[in-house]
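Standup notes, structure subgroup. Blocker cleared on the adenine input:
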Amino acid sequence: MKIDAVTIFPEYFAPLKLSLLGKAQGAGLVEFGIHDLRSFATNVHNQVDDTPYGGGAGMVMMPEVWGKALDPLMNSESDLIILTPAGKRFDQPMAQKFSTAAHLVYACGRYEGIDDRVRQHYLSKNFRVHEVSIGDYVLGGGEVASLVMIEAITRLIPGVLGNPQSLAEESHNEQGYLEYPNFTKPATWRDIPVPEILLSGNHGEITKWRAAQAIERAKNNL
Ligand code: ADE
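Run returned:
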């Protein structure tokens, strides 16, 4: 999968070199391209935003700069993802869908967002355009939101996770993806013992116990 991100803060994407994502890139399973929006600015002040038509607080990102940045990236294989708190809520099924895409282009807005004509333009040219929010809160910009999406989506690409069994177990846990509590050695820590059943070796009973625990957790999180 090819992943491009357009941002005024390319440094935000430094974590792509680390851990799972860094390894996935090293193994050739994903390729990242981070593009500095400001390098597409058209005036001497390298301006990327301006005051909103109709008035109101804040600044809006200018369409011309975005068009110049996105035109060379977009092709028939691309899905354009515009990060905005007003978008469709990102969740695991959406991550699954995007994990089979060939090319994801993340447009990271700042300020009050990107001039809506950018979305309208690429839609009118028959590109696939998605406005996506990672949750009901307002971030300073789309950079962190796109990192969240990139991590959740990339780990679903075949070959990225060292142990594919973890993906199989997750997809079993359909209701909200909540899992049972986990324990490792030692068997007692600060006077708290690991639940007896997990030491029993009775795999049937362990599976039942874990399912009940996962349901209990889900209830408590409602
Ligand atoms: N930009 C600002 N807040 C956001 C959110 N919650 N999701 C996606 N992009 C955003």
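Discussed briefly. Residues 83-85, 133-135, 137-139, 141-142, 145 surround adenine (CB under 6 Å).
Next: hand off to the docking folks.
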